[in-house]
Write a structure and sequence with these properties.
heterodimer; A: 376 residues; globular; B: mainly alpha; 10 helices; 0% strand; binds adenosine-5'-diphosphate; binds magnesium ion; transmembrane (chain B)
Chain lengths: 376, 222
């Protein structure tokens, strides 16, 4: 575990970048440092690998002061990923990734074999091995940066805004990839970002810093959203934190209705028997949704697909959250969200009203748990 | 007779192709002085430029030295050195080296200093020792610019090494100085042509060395 103990950093020009910061960074989890620009995130991160020395306080790694081992030994035990990847333009992708193993004295062959393994792990095509950094896109370069940091299998990974310079679509891909890699490798990751959405998506725990390098709140993301410590954290979380909080409630408990789902080849009797609902969801012969229709506009055997209403974005009850389900319902012209299975087949529908009840239930369960924890 | 006729006459005269005053001997002498001066200048300029560039300090002092070095007239310095040290190679080497150090020093400093800071930061953060950061991260990227400084220095040395002839030494300068003295314009033009030719050869050598030693990753992106 990394323990930051009452650390202050005062730069020679008098700037106090970090002010008496204490943090316990849990092992094998992603801890995110988030806050506005200039609040001391980078300084904090760089004190962990001694790229910056604290003015006061100390940092412990597994109970031992990080100043007790040679600085380069410490750094080689911590992967380091920076915003612009910082690749060596004169080295091939493979040799970039092999850097730390080579520093540790591995022979070239073994280091390259390891590098090739890592390219696969971070989702890089092996055809890129002999290329040079200028031949790669920003997203690919960032993957190389992550692979290079992981090459010597360090227990700790320090990442400073690694995905800030790529476009949103690529960024999402990189974030998902990081979560997947973390699932496999279980590193102790300290991740710096100024993007609260990224913090909430990636963080097991999130430390919100305020300008002047003081800690505003250190909590799991769900707790941050449900109970911001003060108005600074609340403002930083943004206006829609209520909606975003729904990301932490699974949609698998929603009561789905199957009655309003009719196959496209249903006969008149079947349509009539289901006409209790205001809208029916018509599904194709493969079970996938086609669109909504009012029951009396449906004629058996002759469904006009052009006349069907758009069904919005379906959700997967097994993996999606109440946020996705609610989004689907809000986007649907009928106010009902469509649930599908992994193959995209409709498994039921659910109304905004039912989702609303599920949200209230989820909130009250959280409140009960909080009460129980507080011993009330 | 025009310049081309002079040159043709000089190069077709078989007497000019052998003996102690033949083209091969004079050419080799010239290359010898030039190489010696370039190596000495590089041994002084490269390490100082690399280290100051790496630490990003001393830029102002370097600029001052460079300006002073450029302002010194080579020929004046040669005369001074001969008066002081007498005849020999040393008084010739000093002005050549003084001429060549500033471009090598200043360009090397600039080349290292202008390397993108993020790979350097990443390298340190990975636990790379400082010397490796300089030689394995900064130097390979700075190489093209460093070569351009060496090339400028080499061309200046090659054209200035003709002054060696003034103090009784050999080299291509012999043809120019003797030719002027003897009013033998064939010799003068022939010597000047040889110097220009050697400058072109120098350019070609630098081009080849650069092709062989600069990483394709740097050549294409830089
Ligand atoms: N080397 C330095 N010298 C002086 N001030 C610095 C230095 N590095 C950062 N700072 C200042 O310290 C504060 C925190 O910087 P930083 O840790 O980079 O913040 P963040 O990463 O959160 O944007 C800022 O006010 C910044 O200007
Ligand atoms: Mg920063």
């Amino acid at each position: 575990m990394i323990r930051i103990e009452s650390v202050t950093k005062r730069y020679p020009d008098g700037t106090v970048a970090v002010d008496r910061l204490s943090l316990e960074i849990p092992d094998r989890a992603i801890t995110v440092l988030v806050g506005p620009s200039g609040c001391g995130k980078t300084t904090t991160l760089r004190m962990i690998n001694r790229m910056v020395e604290p003015s006061e306080g100390s940092i412990l790694l597994d109970g031992q002061d990080i100043r007790q081992q040679p600085v380069n030994t410490l750094r080689r035990s911590m992967g380091y990923v920076i915003q612009n990847a910082g690749l060596f333009q004169h080295r091939t992708i493979l040799d970039n990734i092999a850097t730390v193993p080579r520093l540790l004295g591995w022979n070239k062959q073994k280091a390259r074999a390891r590098a090739a393994e890592l390219m696969e792990r971070v989702g890089l095509d092996s055809a890129l091995a002999k290329r040079y950094p200028y031949q790669l896109s920003g997203g690919q370069q960032q993957r190389v940066g992550v692979a290079r940091a992981l090459a010597a299998d360090p227990p700790v990974l320090l990442m400073d805004e690694p995905f800030s310079a790529v476009d949103p679509v690529v960024r999402k891909g990189l974030q998902d990839e990081l979560l997947r890699i973390q699932e496999e490798l279980g590193k102790t990751i300290v991740f710096v970002t100024h993007d609260i959405d990224e913090a909430i998506k990636l963080g097991t725990k999130v430390a919100v810093l305020r300008t002047g390098g003081r800690l505003a709140q250190f909590a799991p993301p769900a707790e941050l959203l449900s109970a911001p410590a003060d108005s600074f954290v609340e403002d930083f979380l943004g206006a829609d934190r209520g909606i975003r909080r729904l990301s932490f409630f699974p949609a698998d408990g929603l009561a789905l209705e199957t009655a309003p789902v009719v196959p496209v080849d249903a006969d008149a009797g079947e349509i009539a028997s289901r006409a209790t609902a205001p809208y029916l969801l018509v599904t194709g012969s493969d079970g996938r949704p086609l669109g909504w229709s009012e029951p009396d506009k449906l004629t058996a055997g002759a469904v006009d697909r052009e006349q069907l209403l758009d069904y919005g974005r379906p959700f997967l009850p097994a993996t999606d959250s109440l946020r996705t389900a609610l989004d689907g319902a809000v986007l649907s012209p009928t106010g009902w969200a469509v649930a599908v299975d992994g193959e995209g087949r409709a498994v039921g529908v659910v109304s905004q009203q039912v989702i609303g009840e599920a949200i209230r239930d989820a909130h009250s369960r959280v409140a009960e748990r909080a009460d129980a924890k507080a011993g009330r | 007779m025009n310049v081309l006729d002079f040159a043709r006459a000089f190069f077709t005269d078989s007497a000019h192709w052998h003996g102690y005053d033949g083209i091969p001997t004079r050419f080799a002498e010239h290359v010898g002085y030039s190489l010696e001066a370039l190596v000495i200048a590089a041994v002084i300029g490269l390490p100082v430029g690399l280290v100051t560039g790496h630490y990003g300090r001393g830029g102002n002092t370097l600029a001052l030295i460079a300006t002073a070095g450029r302002a010194l007239p080579s020929f004046g310095l040669l005369v001074l050195m001969v008066i002081w040290l007498g005849l020999g190679t040393l008084p010739v080497m000093i002005p050549l080296v003084v001429l060549a150090v500033p471009p090598i020093l200043v360009t090397t400093y600039e080349a290292v200093r202008s390397v993108d800071p993020s790979p350097v930061d990443a390298a340190r953060g990975m636990g790379m020792p400082e010397a490796r950061v300089l030689f394995q991260v900064e130097l390979p990227v700075a190489l093209p610019l460093i070569y351009s400084g060496l090339r400028t220095a080499a061309i200046q040395i090659v054209s200035t090494a003709t002054i060696a002839a003034y103090v009784g030494l050999g080299g291509i300068g012999r043809y120019i100085i003797d030719g002027l003295y003897q009013k033998d314009y064939e010799k003068v033009v022939g010597g000047a042509t040889l110097v220009a030719g050697l400058a072109l050869v120098t350019l070609a050598v630098f081009w080849a060395v650069s092709r062989l030693t600069v990483s394709p990753g740097v050549r294409r992106s830089g």
